[in-house]
Amino acid sequence: MKLTVIHSAILLSLIPATATFAGGLDRSGQSISAFLQPGNYAEAGISVLDPTVKGSSTVQGFAGEKISDMAEDYYFPSAAIKVQATDKISLGLIYDQPFGADSQYAATAGSFGDGIEGTSVEVKTNNLTALIGYQPTENWNFYAGPVWQTVEADIKLRGEAYGKAPLTISGYNIQVEQEEAYGWLAGFAYQIPELALKAAVTYRSEIKHEAQAHETSGLAILGQQLPAAGHPLSPAKPLLSTLGSRESTLEAVTPQSVNIDLQSGIAQNTLAFANIRWVHWDQFAVTPSLLAQASALAKGQAQNLIDYSDDQWSATVGLGHKFNNKWSGTAAIGWDSGAGNPVTTLGPTEGYWSVGLGGQYSPAENYFIQAGVKYFWLGDATAQTGGNPVGNFEDNHAMGYGMKIGYRF
């Protein structure tokens, strides 16, 4: 089966424009598909995720307490431009928000609230990837480039899941200022354009951040007050103090990853595609210094703010079909392993299964508008703090929506 160059380009752009709900903090999937488009190409898109994550408490004294939906809706934009500078050299720039988290528990006093505030998390990242590709022949493309990344966070821990007063880390807050760091990317692709055949392998390095953080803790420390001067026989009285606040340097390493992208024409105007992704979350941990000290005093061992125990694997497979010169569509199914179970209370799901549909309208051969929707069956998970199970989250789901505009010039 052979395709014209323009038909091949249209089919190769049929990547589902929908949000993801991946393991760990993974969000965008870090695709470079825009850079592998033929000729000069630009795109901009936005994805929205609407998750519902509910559960029940296993905290002593609150066992069976219902935990209302704690997963916040979120959206993230993306953009890319690729220029074929010469027959053998291509240049590209890709923006996305690869990692993040948005959660808000109810303020109701109990497992994850203190009656005033609920446990909450907001983590944001920005990624800008610059690429240069070398095409020794029509079939091969070798590419590499630097990656600029920022990260920031605002996290609050509330409720008896984090211990009982006075030895509790409920009341702990951390604000991480936006900080930039650098990594790199490298990969290669093989293609046969007239068959719409393409295979690409892309590696992204880990990126080490050392960000300035402001931590506060309301942990009360029970000690002994010495007798007052001049009254040697007066009894000692208990004294309560707090750890207070601290400016610290927080180390966090966003993980290395590998993406494998496959696509091929399988019938007239029909394309099969697949993506396999590996993310190195195993032994990932973020341990702010004040939290480590407070949790060691409260629970006898230092506690991580975020940690994962397993690497994340995910796969998406689907079909794209061009109905006529203006309309095309896709259907895809997906699977994600998650990053280990039990999981952190800040994102209590374990992988997913998904199904998605997308449509594309091309008013002219050189540009298109694409939209998609995806439904996720989220995996059941046990949430933990400091190694202690505190909640079960089951039978949850999410909806993802996306829109993308592409232009060839």
Question: In brief, what are we looking at here?
Answer:
This protein is mostly beta strands and 409 residues long. Helix content is 5%, strand content 59%. It has a single domain (5-109, 127-146, 181-209, 254-408), classed as Outer membrane protein transport protein (OMPP1/FadL/TodX) (Porin, Beta Barrel).
Give structural notes:
The chain has 409 residues and is mainly beta. It has one domain (5-109, 127-146, 181-209, 254-408): Porin (Beta Barrel), CATH 2.40.160.60. Helices cover 5% and strands 59% of the residues. It has 2 helices and 26 strands. It has helices at 5-12, 289-299; strands at residues 41-52, 55-57, 66-67, 74-84, 89-96, 100-104, 120-134, 140-157, 163-164, 167-168, 172-192, 197-204, 207-225, 237-254, 257-267, 270-279, 285-286, 306-307, 312-322, 327-336, 343-344, 352-364, 367-378, 381-385, 388-393, 396-408. Strands 1-4-5-7-8-11-12-15-16-19-20-22-23-26 form a 14-stranded antiparallel β-barrel. Strands 3-2-25-24-21 form a 5-stranded mixed sheet, with no helix packed on it. Strands 9-10 form a two-stranded antiparallel sheet. A hairpin with a 2-residue loop joins strand 24 and strand 25.
